[in-house]
């Protein structure tokens, strides 16, 4: 009985130390830098800043996990393509037709990228990965949204920066990406699809290396593993989740909005003990921050687009409070 009591006391001691360090870090991180920011709640803050630049100024070992859907980057969110997206035609964005009474969301056409643009993307993700590797505590995980066309390139950039690849989270979701007939000759080649219709979305799962045992790292940093769904059920790498529609789109009309039903699952898994700070480098509509706040986690996000920053500040409380049926 004395041994059990002693073990319980030690567990309480290191957990209390983790919580104290989380609270100390949180006050430092959420107020870091001179950029414009909005404290969305006691546990969430959005910063109007470029992610790579903000990370370069952030002290090392400041965040515990990353969950993000990057812009793939540079290309579809360049101002010239953004103007065309908001105008509803042209550029790298494909505006799907409305049918069945439903308006489909725009999709970037990554097949049109030149070799130079792909190389620029690789360098961009490399810079992001190096910044995240420095800012994360040992054992911190990165959940990185991608797509079947570019995942090999982006995942390699993270591995080259020193991250361990820990697998992929597969979101089973059928979108309008792929399956189209030859443009301008749809009737002539009615039996031909130029690409397979995409029915899945890969999320790269990476971990910053740590020394010692997993148990040691969990006690010291609160990281190194994934939070289980329950005592009997582990977190799994396949999640079925339909596209974002309905009320969420009305709350936050961002072209890359991910549904709370999905985000809350992966954000929860990102902090194995439920202690720490989640960071989204491309916060957009603040959907990741809202998922974290809903779970009782601390979260910070950066977003460099003024329009999306304003959208996210407005959408955050509604996304956080959203009840999933």
Automatic annotation (TrEMBL):
EC code: 2.1.1.-
Keywords from the named record: Methyltransferase, Transferase
Superkingdom of source: Bacteria
Keyword Transferase: yes
UniProt KW Transferase keyword: yes
All copies of domain DNA methylase N-4/N-6, residue ranges: 63-309
Classification via SUPFAM superfamilies: S-adenosyl-L-methionine-dependent methyltransferases (SSF53335)
InterPro entries documented for this protein: DNA_methylase_N4/N6, DNA_methylase_N6_adenine_CS, RM_Methyltransferase, SAM-dependent_MTases_sf
Family under the similarity heading: Belongs to the N(4)/N(6)-methyltransferase family.
PANTHER family attached to this UniProt entry: RNA METHYLASE-RELATED, TRNA (GUANINE(10)-N2)-METHYLTRANSFERASE HOMOLOG
Protein name: Methyltransferase
Source organism: Steroidobacter flavus
